[in-house]
Amino acid sequence: MGIVRIDDALRLARESDLDLVEVAPMARPPVAKLMDYGKFKYESAQKDRNSRRNQSNTVIKEMKLRPKIDSHDYETKKGHVVRFLKAGDKVKITIMFRGREQSRPELGFNLLKRLADDVEEFGFVESNPKQDGRNMLMVLGPHKKKSEAKADVDADRDRRAAERTESAEAERVELAERREKVAAAPAKKKKKGPADNMDPDIDL
Hints:
Helices cover 48% and strands 21% of the residues. The chain is built from 5 helices and 6 strands. It has helices at 6-16, 37-54, 71-86, 105-118, 146-184; strands at 19-24, 31-35, 60-65, 90-96, 123-132, 135-142. A 4-stranded mixed sheet has the order 3-4-6-5, with helices on one face. A two-stranded antiparallel sheet has the order 1-2. A hairpin with a 6-residue loop joins strand 1 and strand 2. Pfam families: IF3_C, IF3_N. Residues 59-142 form the Translation initiation factor 3 C-terminal domain. It comes from Naumannella cuiyingiana.
């Protein structure tokens, strides 16, 4: 509308059944808009709610290993690391040295390298192995962001729910067809045998 007097702007707002909202009070002259302020506040609240819902907080999980871990424990802990990475979380791997194990840091380094290679499909080395006192640390980061991982999990859950619904519907249809076949089949007459015509009181 260009530069107008405040009285004229208020009159335009009343005629349009809208609100006169000042959007840039520090400008010279100040800038105002004609809008439905209630609708504007509602849409702004909706946007804020959606942005908070999609916001993902970075979570760092921790997994502790020993340099001489056996193969079964290693596979179990590796499974946990894969699960964390697939969920979009970072994982801090800690190798704990005890006693004379501290003189063999290559054992921890080799174990961390092996783990990083085993889970490279789901994550990458964000922080290379480094010695920290009696421990050796490494941080793995996920390939997918938290929001992407959550979307994948939700999609997989919806897919499995749809498959269950489809399977239940197929079973229901099959059961209904069986009932219809049984109901449509002619009833079989029972053949009378000799014993059916005998008087039970007659002693043979």
